[in-house]
Amino acid sequence: MKLILQQEVEGLGAPGDIVEVKDGYGRNYLVPRGLALGWTRGAEKQIQSIKRARDARAIQGKEHASEVKNQLEQLSVTLGVKAGETGRLFGSVTPADIAGAIKSAGGPLVEKRAISIASPIKTTGKHQVSVQLHPEVAATVRLEVAAG
After folding, report:
1. What is the rounded CA–CA span in Å between residue 57 and residue 45?
2. 120: which of 18, 22, 75, 142 lies 20 to 30 Å off by Cα?
3. Which residues contact 23 (CB under 8 A, 6 or more apart)?
4. Pfam families under this entry (predicted)?
């Protein structure tokens, strides 16, 4: 089955790539989750728009990744969450929450998939998270989780 990827699928490809997969994998997993769409000549025209969007979000090269790393490491990110009196959170902090906090703190747009949390953040206080900007460049972001 020939498909056009709409999102990055680990081990398969990036958005805009045309891939050949087994029928069951495409029909039962990729298409229902919105990760891919069936390949047609009409759908092939969408590839350019998918690739343009991917390139706009992507960090351009190692030098650009180093610049973004410097911006992120100088940034002070505060995230307001619901917490109990003891400082324990109702739930945990997700990579999407962190990406939103970085953006609202004036930082660059960061993909939530690039953010890795060493252990689940379930308490208020200061934490560190890693952001993989480029295969060779990773930034460490200081995150203050506050009840709010």
Report:
1. 20
2. 75
3. 1
4. Ribosomal_L9_C, Ribosomal_L9_N
Q: Which residues contact 40 (CB under 8 A, 6 or more apart)?
A: none
Measured between its terminal Cα atoms, the distance across the chain in Å is: 49
Sequence-ordered list of residues with C-beta below 8 angstroms from that of 12, at least 6 positions apart, any chain: 5, 19, 21
- Hey, what are 80's tokens? 């307001």
